[in-house]
Protein 1
Amino acid sequence: MIVCLGCARPPAPQPTDAVRIVFVHQPLWGEPAPFNALLDTFRREHPHIELVTQLLPNDSDVSHQYFLTSLEGQGADFDVLVADVVWVPEFARAGWISELSADFPQTELAEDFLPAAISAVTWEGKTWAVPWYLDVGLLYYRTDLVPHAPRTWGELETFTRAAMKKDPALQGFLWQGRQYEGLVCNVYETLWGFGGKSLENGHLALDTPEAAKALHTLRRFVERGLSPPSVTSAAEEESRRPFQDGRAVFMRNWPYAFGEAQKEGSLVRGKVGLSFLPTASGEPGFGTLGGWQLAINARTPPERRAAAVELIRALTSSEANVKFARAYGRNPARRSAYAALKDTSFAQLEPMLERARPRPVTPYYGMISDILQSEFSAAISGIRSPEEALQQAQRQVDRVMGAQ
Amino acid sequence: MLLVAPAVLLLAGVALYPILATVWLSLHRSILVFHEHRFIGLENWASLLGDARFWASLRTTLYFVAVAVSLELLLGLLFALLLHASFRGRGLLRAAVLVPWAIPTVVAARLWSWLFNADHGLLPALLPGHDVNWLGAPGYALHAAIVVDVWKTTPFVALILLAGLQAIPPELSRAAQLDGAGPLRILGSITLPLLRPAIAVAAVFRGLDAMRVFDAVYALTGGGPANTTETLSIYAYKTLMRSGDFGYGSTIAVATFLCVAVLAGLYLKLVMPNAGGQEA
């Protein structure tokens, strides 16, 4: 596959002893101006650094593939890279990214970054990347159709039933059940709500009562017609569109859907509430952490590495977080940024991000998620019972993790 | 000999070397994340034989090939006969038929995924049993993928068959007509036998292509639900690129290559010699 590596802008004239660093990232969409302004400020403040940016395709799988081949090929043609939350332990274990504990000690991160964000960049107690912006799984509800945000799964079901009784054309609860990474996020959120854990002492326990309850709960919504049959093949957009057209009561989705729902022309504008996902006990639920982190190529030589650390510091500062939120709707990873944004819709996300949890933080994740996707898919589409699917998943996961 | 040397070298470089390198890789345990790269002989191949997921994906692929290619040949033949007849606006229709073939597969698959959408897609509303989720129900999703492939590649088959039809001298059917043969008799006794080489070419091209199908299915279902639409190529891709298991992924890729080679050999043996004989 061909990776498009277009230089975003021509390098400005530099002093001859300038250190040249290359930053690869996915397109941010929207106006390029605010991002370029941020980079230009960095260039002005660091005249000895020649910063070059390169674009990756906007597809997480393809970017992963690019990093896999180029980092394993020991290429040093880029210095700063953007990594998905689930890649950090994998890249760290493989020795592809440089340890950052000396530059960004855990204690320093803990002062301002949200806990889930820190756990996603930490592996074996060390820092391997710095959170850039975050995502979290949320419950969207129609303020005109339900009395308040449901706290338990039971309440969500009751509210859905009541709203659908009044208007049988409504679709109930929309979520993402297609065989892909989003399904793993949906299932883990439900599993955490039943008291399950991602990892215990390095062991990935799947064949548990909590996981079975989670899959039964999701499957039940489909069986009882409280989620449409299409959820078993839906990704984010297949959920957002009908919700935005006013055809559903609830939706699980990432924060981007809120901005879309509040746009002019949206049929649910002003009628959308955001909340924690439900749990079994009624305590506020846990959304899956998503988002992107900045890391340094392990092959980057020392003089370029120092410049790369400077760039990461600048891009992950509280001010940069705020600028990114305002310009691109990206959710900050720092508490101080939320304080600065307290009059905006970002502020309402902070409590959910405080309770966000990462998927199993393990270098095996790339291998495991493939197994989870297919077994979770089998359970929610009724091909196997949840118990059977979980046993099969456990057997395969144990084989992968025990293989080492 | 010297004159063909550049061509042979080029082929060796772009075709032979990658194949041999993949075969060599399939004899290793090679997992990038763990920096493991050691020779393990035929261990991967032994695992492959006992790998239920491999056999399931092989079955899925063969079913896909059989159903999709049969439909494509049948519909392609119909279209070719239609486009071969002379009528007003034939040129326009010929161009229009090619549109699906011109659309990039991934774009076509995304388009169809909205058409198949269980809640507001056009197709479930038109088809019987309209509460079925075509893309999320086991047994249906693979057929949805077949529909996309048929829609996309029938024009290609029609085009090859149309070229075949145009190579048949019109005097033959005219002579048969004079002898009192009806249109069906002409089709069965003259057109189809003479079209056999073209049909064989279309079948070989489509069959080999369909054995390696990836993009149409991957963009439509991602291999789901529960791997029921996972073809050999999707399994190889996921193992190679998502899991980073290059040794085993290469084993699946080589196995796919072998299946394609066997299929190609069968085709050539069964269809091509006859066709060649008739031409002579």
Protein 2
Amino acid sequence: MRKVWCVAATEYQTAVRSKAFIMGLLALPLMIGLSIGLQALAKRQTDLNDRRFVVVDRTGVLYPRIEARAQQRNEFLKQMGTNGSPRPAFVPEAYAPVDDARAEAILSDRIRKKQIAAFLIIGRDVVEPKAGADAALAYHAQAQTFNELPDWLGQVLNEEIHRLRYVQAGVDPALLQRLGQQVPVRRLGLATVDPTGRLIPAKEESRAAALVLPMGAMLLLYMLIMSAAPALLNTVLEEKMQKISEVLIATVSPFRLMLGKLLGCVMVSMSLGVLYLGAALYMLSRHDMLDRVPPHFFAWFLLFQVLGLLMYGSVFSAIGASCNELKDAQNLMLPVMLLIMIPFFVWLPIAESPNSPFARWISLFPPATPSLMMLRIAIAPGPPLWEILLGLALTLAFTLCCVWAGGKVFRIGILSQGQSPTLGRLLRWIAAK
Amino acid sequence: MSMTGKRGVALRLEGVSKTFGTHTAVRCLSLEVPAGAIYGFIGPNGSGKTTTLRMILHIVLPDAGVVEVLGARGTRSANDRLGYLPEERGLYRKMSVRRVLAYQAALKGMGCAAARESIDHWLGRMGLAAWADHKVEALSKGMAQKIQFIAAVVAKPELLILDEPFSGLDPVNLDVLREAILDLARQGTTILFSTHDMAMAEQMCDFIFMIHKGRKVLDGTLTAIQSQHGADRVRVRVEGGAAALHGLEGAQVIRDLGQMQELHCAGDPQELLRALVARARVHQFEISKPSLHDIFVSIARPDSAEGGHA
């Protein structure tokens, strides 16, 4: 055990003194900061050139309303100035004659010449639709990626068309608007009763806030595993390529060497984890969200972090030991990375229904268990205890298999030279005595 | 000094064999290395030397036979008392020299203070004290090679295994390293020393051991080996050179060295001398012992009859 600790301590010291560790330490806050900063910057960098568009109004009544509403919108944006996110002005232009059969071709050509951004053809019968009638709103643009204009046109025109229909039907549009007013739904948590029997009302909740903890837990666990486990591949491969391995395994058995490396990797990840979890606790307490963290959350987090590191760390060590160059290692990493990414493909439906049969069985699939079980634990009331324990047991068994198989591949692979690893060869090494 | 096996034997191999797939790398190899000796380990490339060294270090396990190192039979328990310098060398390039050496010492179970003292001693001896806190990547090839040697000896091993320790060294560094190895031997360290440099093996080794095609083909002192392989060898310098020796009864020219010729003498060398004097003027006649180089080549050359036998 002394040698395992010796290897672990050296791996730990080497890792925490490296630039990669400092980068890893700063990666998460840097990524969050960058993403917020870039989004804010991008908003301010919107193309604010006027969006000119042509309306072919075959009803003969809707264009003036579009022009008026566009003017209102542009005035409002002007008043807002730099408060809020700046948006481009919409500048409509009427097309005549409205029955021109060549209008579509002419206006398409104007778009190609960059004279206008889009054009809209309003069907003659949109206010009174009949079977087979010309009752469509046809929006034409070269690129359909800019949504704001067609969305605005759709909203404005539908409101106007509804208003015209109400008037034609003899209904007062103002009365109808008052009667049809929407009633908002407030999203609240659960009420509690304090020891004196006093009711403590439920707090306001939002979907985004409710997703912060589970998503954050899953992301943090993923990041803590990925910040340390793949580095094992590099160190083992470096030792092999630099011909250091032979001296090492003349002193330490290959299995102990791998265990020492795994332990070092766990220690590195734990150090990062302590810093990040501390920062996360501070942020949660500042935003009065600490009570959202379920009891035992940190114990489960720690357990799944260690298991995830041992599971993926042993696989990455074995890949490093079996390869002779980085290119081979990258090929073998691909299937492992796909397994690691499973939680990211399925997290949203699981967050919406954390106790569905799908959520249950996929969170019991060992390669995905650490992240997905933490996601489920972070959503109140969390999965039943037996599911967490079953997930833990299955992951532990799978991890032991990975460490055992990884150890066998490591033992043979570390001395093999000149052979590109294939799945068949790796299986033979695992089966070897 | 050392805790060695029975009768002062540092290393014993008994009928050791190792096969990889269909290729037998080592066949029924037996060897006894006395404690405190310098044992030269020679053999052509691919003869099974590295496999044998790896079996001694328990990096690979033998299919048959027993490996006993410093009294430990078939286990790695003596590995902390071994030092190993492999042929293919490497060091952590991003670590400082002192950290690399301290790591090796710690793995061998050496305490921090003793390790520091040993590291300082060896760095000073090798003229590398000023480089202790530099990263390995800043060292020249020769310096790195000396650091690798220090890594092998820093924990004061009882048995030191050196695989081609002098390859790539300039004459000055070669002398420094040779002197260090001889000093260790004088202090009682057993040294198993693999080399392709036959002259170096002749100068340094108490015993020579040769392996060829996985089998032992030589084992003993240099004198004993030479007696076995060279009593019938004569070097002559005669007027007329090699042409004067043509058709000489009882002798056969092995090598024409230009001014001298080497003969294989089947009978009595005195009879050969008389026959030579009768033919030509003899300037030099020497009953010679073959060099280790000659013995090696005679065994290892492709058409050798000796090569396949122990």
